[in-house]
Design a protein that fits this description.
Blueprint: H1 10-42, H2 45-61, H3 73-97, H4 102-117, H5 123-128, H6 145-161, H7 168-184, H8 199-216, H9 221-234, H10 259-269, H11 274-287, E1 289-292, E2 295-298, H12 322-334, H13 338-352, E3 354-357, E4 360-363, H14 367-378
Antiparallel strand pairs: 1-2, 3-4
């Protein structure tokens, strides 16, 4: 078939070719990367099971410092603990949303919890608290928020999924310790590490108290109400409504509002309190979220402001926050925001390099922590635990 006369003119050929190339770039990768995003949002059982089996296998194998590239022993310990934590949360979410997978996945979730409770895995926290073990000092004053808050959230979620949880007594003890420490804190925060306090970490602590009260009928109403009030106003930047990344634990001096901490808090708090969690998520997407050719992303700092990356945000590429993107992915599914979820998933798919092999799926570039974290976000349950 001869070309239309218009396209035989040499001066039009290159512009038309360029437009065709740009159209292909704008549509083909978007379609390719977005196909699984729709399936993940719908909770397609086959896809969920494939990744669940992969993270369960990683837990069965175990992780160690050799699995992580950071030079800091503290952060290597955090990342090992976080791998088991996100694996447990993800598997418990799937066991609740997909009853057909419950019998297969619950033992793996409980194995991940057992690993979290081991002295070896909690050693990172023990060391920075000068040898004081978090579980052996529950009657003491020190916060241990990096360990106890996240640990207790997993225990509380397990107790909602498995009413006769073998971890119930420990959940009671940790909850009592955290509630007391929140009440006694001059700024209403449990310290993560000595001299360090972060509202995003305390979101897990607060959600665990809410779940414990809902499950057992124990009365934590006063401390819950006080802490929720802080998340509504005190710990929010008045202009952007982002959560302050840190709070000085003696005087309450706030750090800047950032996406990584706000998005993490939105995800964690959603287990217990949906309204404030949704408001935090919407603040992130409003002031830090955007997309290019349908690939969603979240900047670490609001309104394209420059700023450094760190271990909380991950390495920033053109200001984009890996942590902000990941936790916003989870919150988007929690709150039924399909467009935001699929857009963010496209980016995760492109950067994560999914590999399907032997009935399992792994996102190869993230390592064990990235894979477990992404699994927990992709399976974030729209229904309350």
């Amino acid at each position: 078939m001869p070309l239309p006369k218009l396209l035989t003119r040499w001066w039009l050929r290159w512009p038309v070719a360029l437009l065709i190339a740009l159209a292909a770039i704008a549509t083909a990768p978007r379609w390719w990367a977005g196909r699984d995003g729709v399936r993940w949002f719908a909770g397609e059982s086959e896809l969920v099971a494939a990744m669940a089996r992969q993270v369960a296998a990683t837990t069965d194998r175990g992780v160690s410092d050799k699995d992580f590239t950071n030079d800091s022993p503290l952060f290597k310990g955090e990342w090992g603990f976080g791998t088991y934590q996100m694996t447990a949360l993800g598997l418990l979410q799937v066991a609740q949303e997909h009853p057909e997978l419950r019998a297969e996945l619950l033992p793996a979730a409980e194995h991940a919890i057992d690993r979290m409770l081991s002295a070896e895995v909690r050693a990172f926290d023990t060391k920075i608290w000068r040898g004081e073990d978090a579980l052996e000092s529950l009657d003491g004053p020190n916060g241990h928020g990096a360990y106890l808050g996240y640990m207790n959230l997993v225990l509380a979620v397990h107790r909602r999924v498995v009413p006769n949880s073998r971890f119930a007594e420990l959940n009671d003890r940790i909850t009592a310790a955290l509630a007391r420490r929140l009440r006694e804190s001059p700024v209403g925060l449990v310290e993560t590490y000595p001299g360090e306090a972060y509202p995003c970490d305390n979101a897990g602590t607060l959600a665990s108290l809410i779940l414990h009260q809902r499950t057992t009928g124990a009365d934590h109403a006063a401390v819950i109400a006080t802490t929720l009030a802080h998340y509504r106003e005190t710990w929010r930047d008045p202009e952007t409504r982002l959560l302050h990344q840190s709070i000085e634990p003696r005087h309450g001096t706030p750090g800047p509002g950032r996406a990584s901490g706000t998005a993490l808090a939105a995800f964690l708090l959603s287990y217990g309190e949906r309204d404030i969690s949704r408001d935090l998520h919407e603040a992130v997407m409003r002031r830090c979220g955007d997309s290019l050719f349908g690939f969603g992303y979240v900047d670490e700092y609001p309104d394209n402001q420059p700023g450094p990356g760190d271990v909380d945000s991950g390495p920033l590429i053109f200001g984009i926050s890996p942590s902000g993107c990941a936790f916003s992915l989870g919150a988007s599914r929690m709150f039924g925001n399909r467009d935001a979820f699929v857009g963010l998933y496209r980016t995760a798919h492109l950067m994560g390099t999914p590999v399907d092999r032997g009935g399992r799926r792994i996102y190869a570039t993230g390592g064990p922590l990235g894979n477990a974290l992404l699994f927990a976000m992709l399976t974030a349950n729209p229904e309350l635990p």
